UniProtKB/TrEMBL annotation:
InterPro entries tied to this protein: BRINP, BRINP_C, BRINP_EGF
Name the UniProt record assigns to this protein: BMP/retinoic acid-inducible neural-specific protein 3
Keyword Chaperone on entry: no
Location of the BRINP EGF domain: 82-116
Keyword Glycoprotein included in the entry's annotation: yes
Keywords, alphabetical: Glycoprotein
Domain of life: Eukaryota
Domain BRINP C-terminal: 142-589
Organism: Labeo rohita
Length: 589
């Protein structure tokens, strides 16, 4: 054992063990030199070679030791005793297996495999690394570059991480300082990882494992979030966390709150176009397609227009058909019959075209009502054995004006209804002519013009067809083909509320808005009214511009005023997010 103690005076710790040709090669940390053969070395005299005197566990030197001069039967016991004394501090037996060495502790020293002093040293080093990491981040936060960047951030509208990143990339001084932080922190993290690996290696056979809080590099996203938190969550000497999606702060304490003023968010869509100068949390204007409501931009949905102009009825198609067949007084309109060619209940010669009209004269008597046409009924009688067949052309004037501002009913065309003729059970040859429009083909009307023509019905020369031709085309113009009379003409429909002054008020707001955002609201309502009015046009490639007729004849606007309103609506429509060009066929001048 004296020889083992002699060896221990030269070596302080052991890392591995190898055996080759009866030469035990020990990886040891050398603390001093002594004269004597060490073996397993390429040097004759290690006393003259200082480079092998190493001072870290990573460096290894191969030493032979005293076993070379001991008898063979003592060498094994000597090595085991020396290794136990040196490697295990005489607290256990040094064991190596599967390229791993450890101490088989004696009962008196159960923690002999746990080098507490070395572990504490490594833990202290890690703590110094953590403090250095915190110091580096704090120095960056307090740096002139970062503080200057914070001072230059815009405050008139809310910022998000994307916008702050754009501003961050344009600040060259801050970029340079941030790269310096990244370099220093990267070096600290590298040292920390190496130390943590050593600590785990030292403590792998300890009863308790060390708890290591690993350090991580703070990415750019952290500093963007940190910037937002300083901007909006740093009231009352607190720093909270800013939740960008919710636009609220999570504060360390409930009272007092760290929540600061978060301005309105400027951007596309539902975000503000600009923030209010008086209150930065509220919008002052909105993007196209959105309207301002109590400081917030909402999707542009027009307010109800029923108080301007009524449209709907609760009657269903089957109900309307039943009421029309029975000529119910609830859907009868009291129109005035006007004609220079025909008198009701008076026989007349139908050879020539007859013009008649039914008008309501609402502009004179009912300026607060507009009218919807649901159907027409005529009772036409002819003399016995008459060869005359009446034909009817119907023109509808929606809101007044000249006859040229009427549209022609496309009877029995493109799905439009046809006349229904019913023979009356009376001695005369009389028929009820009924045209049922219903909810599908209903439309506005003020005056309905009728043009009654007649055609002569005769048999063809083959005798199996009926041929029609105009009376003037007959060979004998003086020949009498029979007489005709119109017993009654009736329009069916209903009247709706119409407030011309309210619509005038909407138009006035196009130039003189009452409140912020009221102009957009007025435009939306006018667009809705135009759409609902023009939707009641007859079938055709384009809807008729009935809306212009309404402005022209019921609001008494000039042609130039109507054109200005249409241009304003078109310009406003083009700015909407789901713009679709609107076209309508001109009807009124």
């Amino acid at each position: 054992m004296n020889s083992a103690r002699w060896a221990a005076q030269r070596f302080t710790s052991i890392n591995s063990l190898d055996k080759d040709n009866n030469c035990f090669c020990l990886s040891l940390q050398v603390t001093e030199t002594r004269t004597g053969p060490l073996g397993c070395s390429n040097y004759d005299n290690l006393d003259s070679v200082s480079s092998v005197l190493v001072h870290s566990q990573e460096n290894k030197v191969q030493l032979q030791g005293l076993q070379a001069i001991l008898p063979s039967y003592l060498r094994s016991n000597f090595v085991q005793a020396a290794l136990g004394y040196i490697g295990c501090n005489a607290e256990g037996q040094f064991v190596c297996k599967d390229n791993d060495c450890w101490c088989q502790c004696s009962k008196e020293f159960p923690q002999c495999n746990c080098p507490e002093a070395d572990i504490r040293s490594q833990e202290n080093y890690l703590e110094r690394m953590r403090e250095a990491w915190r110091q580096e981040n704090q120095e960056f936060q307090d740096s002139d570059e970062f503080q200057s960047f914070m001072g230059k951030l815009p405050t008139q509208s809310a910022l998000n991480s994307s916008r702050i990143q754009q501003l961050w990339k344009t600040d060259s001084a801050l970029q340079q300082r941030y790269r310096q932080l990244e370099s220093r922190v990267s070096l600290l993290l590298s040292k920390t990882r190496r130390t943590a690996n050593k600590l785990f290696s030292l403590s792998k056979r300890c009863r308790t494992q060390p708890k290591i809080a690993s350090l991580r590099e703070r990415p750019l996203s952290y500093w963007l979030q940190f910037t937002l938190s300083i901007l909006y969550c740093s009231e009352n000497n607190q720093l909270g966390f800013y939740a960008e999606e919710l636009r609220i702060c999570a504060c360390p304490y409930e009272s007092p709150s760290c929540q600061g003023i978060v301005p309105c968010e400027v951007g596309d869509g539902h975000r503000c176009a600009s923030c209010s100068v008086d209150n930065r949390t509220r919008c002052s204007s909105c993007n196209p397609g959105y309207v301002l409501s109590h400081g917030v931009c909402k999707y542009a949905v027009p307010n109800p227009t029923d108080h301007y102009l009524g449209f709907e009825t609760d009657l269903q198609d089957l109900e309307l058909r039943y009421l029309l067949q029975h000529r119910d007084g609830r859907i009868t309109t009291h129109a005035i019959f006007v004609s220079n060619d025909v008198r009701l209940n008076v026989w007349f010669d139908p050879s020539w075209r007859k013009r008649m009209l039914l008008t309501l004269k609402s502009n004179k008597f009912k300026s607060n009502r507009v009218h919807m046409l649901l159907g027409i009924s005529l009772q036409i009688c002819m003399t016995k054995n008459s060869t005359i067949e009446p034909t009817m052309s119907v023109y509808v004037n929606p809101f007044g004006g000249s006859h040229s501002e009427s549209w022609t009913m496309p009877i029995n065309q493109n799905g439009y209804p046809d006349w229904e003729k019913t023979k009356l059970d009376i001695p005369l040859d009389c028929f009820n002519w009924t045209l049922t429009l219903g909810n599908r083909w209903k439309s506005f009307f003020e005056t309905v013009h009728f043009y009654l023509r007649s055609r002569i019905r005769t048999e063809s020369s083959q005798g199996n067809d009926t041929v029609y031709f105009e009376p003037l085309e007959a060979t004998d113009a003086s020949q009498n083909f029979g007489y005709m009379k119109i017993n009654s003409m009736q329009l069916f429909g209903y009247s709706m509320h119409f407030d011309p002054e309210a619509i005038q008020d909407l138009i006035l707001q196009l130039d003189y808005p009452y409140t912020q955002g009221s102009q957009d609201s007025a435009l939306l309502q006018l667009m809705e009214i135009r759409y609902r009015v023009n939707r009641l046009s007859p079938p055709g490639p384009l809807p008729l511009d009935l809306f212009s007729c309404l402005l022209r004849h019921r609001l008494k606007l000039s042609s130039s005023e109507v054109q200005r309103i249409l241009t304003t609506l078109q310009t406003f429509s083009a700015k909407q997010p789901f713009y679709k060009e609107y076209e309508a066929a001109k009807l009124c001048s």
